[in-house]
Amino acid sequence: MRSIPRAAFLIAAFSAITFIAGCDSLPHIDLSGIFDGNHPATRPASLDVVQRDPDLTLRFHKMALKDSKVDPGSNEITLHFDGNADAAVIAGIQQSAPDWIAGTQTNGDTANIVARKDVEFSTAPSPDGFELTLTPRTASAAPIAAPTEPVEAIPLRGDQKEAAADGDVDGMQREDLRNAFGVDPQPGPAASGL
Question: What gap in Å lies between CA 138 and CA 124, rounded to an integer?
Answer without folding.
Answer: 22
